[in-house]
Write a structure and sequence with these properties.
Helix content is about 45%, strand content about 15%. The longest helix is centred in the first third of the chain and has 20 residues. It has one domain: Hypothetical protein PA1492 (Rossmann fold), CATH 3.40.50. The protein has about 120 residues and is α/β, with parallel strands linked by helices. Strand 3, helix 4 and strand 4 form a beta-alpha-beta unit.
């Protein structure tokens, strides 16, 4: 199984928007699994209660760095685009584009908005 980093929006103006993005990220992970990949979504793991607080900049940065560390082991990164590119996704694209020449595949995917 190929290790694939999942990039999708997380934050939102309201609790409902964040929940919509969480549901979407879970669907993205399921999609990768259905394609035979092994997904990792740091924004789902590290933002859970008791781990890191995404609204605190220092903790958010630590989570991003942890995600990039996992990404160094992946063969690809999938940017799921149905809800557009968040600022975090743009930063990840810049990061992975920089290291792409060495080993990582970048894919832009659409699975449809949540129903």
């Amino acid at each position: 199984m190929e290790l694939i980093i999942v990039e999708s929006p997380y934050s939102g103006e309201t609790h409902e928007q964040v929940e919509k993005h969480i549901t979407y990220a879970r669907r993205c992970m399921k999609h990768i699994i259905s394609q035979g990949g092994c997904p990792f979504a740091s924004h789902l793991l590290y933002t859970q209660k008791g781990i890191l607080n995404d609204s605190k900049e220092a903790e958010r940065k630590k989570g991003i760095q942890c995600g990039y560390a996992w990404g160094s082991q992946a063969v690809g990164v999938a940017f799921f685009m149905d809800y557009g590119m968040s600022t975090g996704m743009v930063a990840a694209l810049e990061h992975y584009t920089w290291i792409r020449e060495y080993y990582i595949k970048i894919d832009f995917s659409y699975i449809g908005e949540n129903k």
